[in-house]
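Sat 14:20. Reprocessing the chain from the morning session after the first attempt stalled halfway. Input below, unchanged.
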Amino acid sequence: MSIKTTESRAVRITLVALALGFMALFLVLPLAAVFTEALRKGWDAYLEALKEPDAWAAIRLTLITAAVAVPLNLVFGVAAAWAIAKFDFRGKAFLTTLIDLPFSVSPVVAGLIYVLVFGAQGWLGPWLAAHDIKIIFAVPGIILATTFVTFPFIARELIPLMQAQGNEEEQAAQVLGATGWQTFWFVTLPNIKWGLLYGVILCNARAMGEFGAVSVVSGHIRGQTNTMPLHVEVLYNEYQSVAAFAVASLLALLAIVTLVIKSVIEWRHEREMRAAAELPPERPAPATLILKEAS
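Finished this time. Tokens:
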């Protein structure tokens, strides 16, 4: 169903043209430039740049970092959102504020905080050195910094969603005899699954593309602590532009895949919402389904 507006046809055309022009200038053109420069010397040079051992090490480290940081943020995000949306407790507002902290702190400052705590001259540095534990300029520091800058994404997607849904269904499930785990698995999780997937996708995209915090704690050790964004910087500073843009194009492809998955999730969610709206009002409540599963 279309929505009629009071603006004239000329105004609508102008607004659409401005939006499309802005997207073409700041999104499509840079993206096209990345792939053009990456393929400037042909496919052989492009593939050779990606086969280079340091590039593989950067790709592997980026995937490892995301594979650890995203599940950690998934557990924290669900737990924090459930606590904030479903319960009242002392310090609730403070916890909500802390979740937004990485949005207001520069990633470079976040990296410096970890250096201050875990670095050789930091608060825990002497103890870590005495026990031969390396965090800064090593993979653990990269994972910690990435986890810090990405942990609000899942929680921030779930908190307003769970607050809007309320806790009536969970209370009904518990009255009917469902355990806490059954309530979460059969009532809460189905209601938040699309928001949860959306938050995971955003978290993963940020984890793979993080530069500032990782740059501070990594030490820029080629083949060991350089993620893909850091490797692109190193190659570009060494005037290896084709190799730099080749790795950058891989990051761009990951971003495009993320965008496609995000669009599919939104489409599936809208279709499910439309299907739910067409169901008869006498359909079984989720709490009843929980009781059947428990029995």
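The chain is about 80% helix and 0% strand.
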